[in-house]
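Might you be able to check the backbone structure tokens below? Thank you kindly.
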Amino acid sequence: MANVSVYNIEGKEVGKIDLSDAVFGVEVNEHLVHMAVVSQLANNRQGTQKAKTRSEVSGGGRKPWRQKGTGHARQGSTRAPQWTGGGVVFAPVPRDYSFKMNKREKRAALKSALTSRVEENKFIVIDEINFEEAKTKNFANILKSLDVSKALVVLEDDNKNAELSARNIADIKTAKTNTINVYDILKYNTVITTKAVVAKIEEVYA
């Protein structure tokens, strides 16, 4: 069973917490992790690129000159691909890049990503993050005391002040237990969360 330190908002160690092996101690499946990242990036693509083929470009109905006797190469339309203003060969058309992973694969990939962060000592647990008011300086002080710059911060669903406090800090992204994903876990150097969120993650994903 993995065991990590618990810190307070001043960055001082105040205890230890045992992490469930069912979530934070699984065998890392790199293939599923890669699939999850590619899937998320593909699903985010708009797929709206479009260029016109020669059949869609207006004009070009008349043969520009007669077939023989001009000294020019034979041409059938001014909208052929080799002409300026002509259509595009094999032009891109709108398409859907998304593909699906089943629930078991998604869950296994997320557990693998969380386990990798624990193994690399990039998973920081804070006893609690409670602010009386939303203030960027409050959250910046926590990051400074923990010596963290680029981080994914997973908060409780109702912790609005902490979420607003972190909003304007560069390279910091907040998430909730139901919105964490493999791409964000791997994109940011460190995952910061609270004891309450760890319990919630273990409850949902174990």
In short: The chain has a mean pLDDT of 92. The helical segments are 21-24, 30-44, 103-119, 136-146, 160-166, 182-187, 195-205. The first helix runs from residue 21 to 24. The chain has two domains: 2-46+97-205, 50-93.
